[in-house]
Specification:
The complex is a heterodimer. By secondary structure, chain A is α/β, with parallel strands linked by helices. Chain A has helices at residues 47-54, 77-87, 103-108, 118-131, 147-159, 177-192, 205-208, and strands at 3-16, 19-32, 36-40, 62-67, 70-71, 88-91, 165-169, 197-201, 213-218, 221-223. Helix content of chain A is 31%, strand content 28%. In chain A, helix 4 (118-131) packs across helix 5 and helix 5 (147-159) runs parallel beside helix 6. The chains are: A alpha/beta, B alpha+beta.
């Protein structure tokens, strides 16, 4: 299997007020194509920062990051934006859907910058909504959907441009257990059946159990999961 | 077109705020259309309702100075001049000083040089044979109920008679009617120039101005210059203007109408710029996480700037179109109510309004675009 994510000696620090906080301290990480990776750790441990670096939302201070065959730190801001559109699908804790648009128009957003025709875009949108089980809710607005359904729309939006990697930041953090199980089942399906590589940040050990590999981030360093955490 | 739902979603997020802003913009452009149209409309009305073959010759120093009556045959002798008629301001009022009457003395046989109205020839003849005769306009008939045969006494602010009285009694011998689309000159009270000149105690042998009809409007400039050349370096130098230039000068005496109107429009639009810019700014501030999501999915700075400008353009141009349409509908009625022909709103006003709205779209989007481009993706997604 080939590595789709490769991080070497990655360091990232933020300046908060007058203080410089080193969030990641020399991270080495590799993930294979088709892997479902869960990143766990306490709040402020650096797991979301790690996820942002993999998704090309942020840049490292030091070290190298290669995702889907591209050295991210070498790309300009414009190149990185285009790369993200091609290779990464994002799923957020609070769905971040556009409230005035219907489910299908929300899912269409990543396709607007492509050269696909309206017909082709609609076909892809329908396919993505069918895949997440919301084919019959295409014309509903986010406010008319439950939390779980909104997250499914967000997953459809992440999938619609057929990205190499799905980056999920606490995708079940705002959902009840039953709905969480359903969303995690969907992610597992996408990983196993459709071969999507998934990197997921979660606090929830039950969610992490669905992943094929679990990593624990603490104080900016990757390590073993402590006792009580699935590892 | 594929971005339209996205642009619309930004605007329609806060419907009430968007509608109120659109209403403000629309009202401002109604005002713009009507005010800008007024200056253009007056120009158009002057062009339409004045005759290029009519000139006015008055004192070069001040129209109130007057000119000698003896100038009349000399003006008539200028090649291209067809006829000349005297016109003197009477400055009369009826009973109370507040009851001003638009009264003046003329040679009734040549009234058409200065007055664009319809008069029965029988009334002209009656006026010619009655020294104290007067022909009045339809509004005076309506206002005071005056009719042919009535004797009316006006008080003049300028002229007194030999007995020291400023009361002048006239016999109404006729009325005139207005032409379609003519200036609202329905309050006229005409008296005989010969009678006024004989009976007044001062300024005998003078006129306020001469109305001059020429053969060809194309020669107005050269004929006017020839008339003025006749009296150059005399005690009473003349200034001859085309009828429409004369009226324009009279309007400008009130003040620089274009400047006043322009200042009001500029103040309204300047205030409006802050309203629209503020709406756009608020809208962007509230949508920081949504913009971050768009950036996450590949919308670069240029694409985001394009969306914000498009949103601003949709807001400004749609509202301006509504405002200008309402102005275009109201404008002819406004002029009609003023007694002038129902003129259409000039195409130049509509074009200027659209150009201003387009400029507004860009100006009011500048700050929001700057803010959207400064957005730090990681912070915006984290809600910081």
């Amino acid at each position: 299997m080939t590595n789709i994510v490769s991080m070497k000696a990655v360091v990232k620090a933020y300046v908060r007020g007058k203080q410089r906080v080193e969030v990641l301290r020399g991270i080495d990480l590799e993930a294979e194509q088709g892997e479902f990776l869960a990143l766990m750790g306490p709040s402020g441990s650096g797991k979301t920062t790690l996820l942002n670096l993999i998704g090309g939302l942020d840049r490292p201070d030091r070290g190298t990051i290669t995702v889907a065959g591209e050295r991210l730190e070498a790309l300009s801001a414009g190149q990185l934006t285009k790369w993200r559109a091609r290779h990464i699908g994002f799923i957020f804790q609070f769905y971040n859907l556009l409230p005035v648009l219907t489910a299908e128009r929300n899912v269409e957003v990543p396709l607007l910058l492509t050269k696909l025709s309206a017909k082709e875009r609609q076909r892809n949108v329908n396919a993505a909504l069918m895949l997440v089980g919301l084919g019959d809710r295409a014309r509903h607005k986010p406010a008319e959907l439950s939390g779980g359904q909104q997250q499914r729309v967000a997953i459809a939006r992440a999938l619609v441009s057929d990205p190499s990697v799905l980056v999920c930041d606490e995708p079940t953090g705002d959902l009840d257990r039953e709905t969480s199980d359903s969303i995690l089942g969907l992610l597992q399906l996408l990983n196993r059946t459709h071969g999507k590589t998934i990197v997921m940040v979660t606090h929830d050990p039950r969610a992490a159990e669905r992943a094929s590999r679990r990593l624990y981030v603490d104080k900016g360093v990757l390590g073993q999961a402590p006792l009580g955490h699935a590892a | 077109m594929k971005f339209l739902p996205l642009v619309w979603s930004g605007l329609w997020r806060k419907r009430v705020r968007t509608l109120l802003t659109m209403l403000s913009v629309a009202i401002a452009f109604v005002l713009f259309g009507l005010l800008d149209g007024v200056t253009a409309g007056f120009d158009l009305a002057l062009t339409r309702m004045t005759d290029g073959a009519k000139l006015r010759t008055a004192s070069r120093i001040n129209v109130q100075n007057g000119l000698p009556l003896s100038y009349r045959p000399r003006i008539e002798s200028v090649p291209g001049v067809r006829e000349v008629g005297p016109w003197t301001f009477f400055a009369g009022y009826y009973r109370e000083p507040s009851d001003d009457i638009d009264s003046f003395a003329l040679d009734v046989t040549r009234f058409s040089i200065t007055e664009d109205v319809i008069v029965d020839p029988a009334y002209v003849e009656a006026m010619r044979t009655t020294r104290t005769g007067a022909i009045i306009g339809p509004e005076l008939v309506n206002l005071y109920g005056w009719k042919i045969g009535d004797r009316v006494t006006l008080k003049s602010r300028i002229w007194t008679q030999a007995n020291g009285s400023s009361d002048w009694t006239f016999d109404i011998v006729g009325t005139y009617s207005l032409r379609e689309g003519a200036f609202p000159a329905g309050e006229g009270f005409w008296i005989n120039h010969d009678y006024l000149d004989e009976a007044r105690t001062h300024s005998k042998g003078s006129v306020t101005l001469y109305g001059v009809r020429i053969d060809d409007a194309a020669h107005a400039g050269t004929i006017g210059a020839a008339i003025d050349a006749l009296f150059a370096n005399s005690a009473d130098e003349t200034l001859t203007q085309a009828e429409r230039d004369y009226f324009r000068a009279q309007i400008d005496r009130v003040g620089n109408i274009s400047f006043i109107v322009g200042s009001i429009i500029a103040a309204v639009l300047f205030a409006l710029l802050f309203v629209t810019a503020n709406t756009m700014m608020q809208s962007i501030r509230e949508r920081v996480p949504e913009l971050a999501v768009l950036k996450t999915y590949g919308f670069g700075d240029t694409a985001i700037a394009g969306l914000v400008v498009a949103e601003s353009a949709l807001l400004c141009l749609t509202s301006a179109a509504v405002g200008l349409t309402v102005a275009a509908l109201l404008f002819p009625q406004m002029f009609d109510a003023m007694g002038v022909a129902p003129l259409p709103l000039e195409a130049s006003t509509l074009a200027t309004g659209t150009a201003i709205a387009a400029a507004f779209s860009i100006l009011s989007a500048l700050l929001p675009v700057w803010r959207a481009q400064r957005l730090k993706l990681v912070d915006a997604l984290a809600g910081r």
